[in-house]
Amino acid sequence: MEKQTFEYGYSAPTAEERREIEGIRNKYLPADERQRKFERLKALDRRVKRPAVWLAVVLAVCGTLLFGMGLAMALEWALYLWGGVAAAVGFALAVLTAPLYRLVYRRRKKKYAGQILRLSAELLNE
Length: 126
Description:
80% of the residues lie in helices and 0% in strands. With 126 residues, the protein is mainly alpha-helical.
């Protein structure tokens, strides 16, 4: 009589693989109300921050370029008056970047604070 054996192998995913699998799986599950609220909260937070950041980046880049153009006008092309004016305007734009960022950020924060606090309280079950 021949001996019959049964072999079974099992390997569980590692913790990192499990997190990745769950992350992919969650993308395809229907979103529940809590997840929708969390996404809304993140969107509101981005709505507060992004305009201020974009304004600061645009002003800083434009101010720096205008300052550099003014220096080039004065030093290379001997247009001292217009070069000085362009450099001064560029410098002013660059210097005003931080105060304008804070101003826009505070105004948008004030505008959306109620919605953000209400949603976060709902998510934290307070």
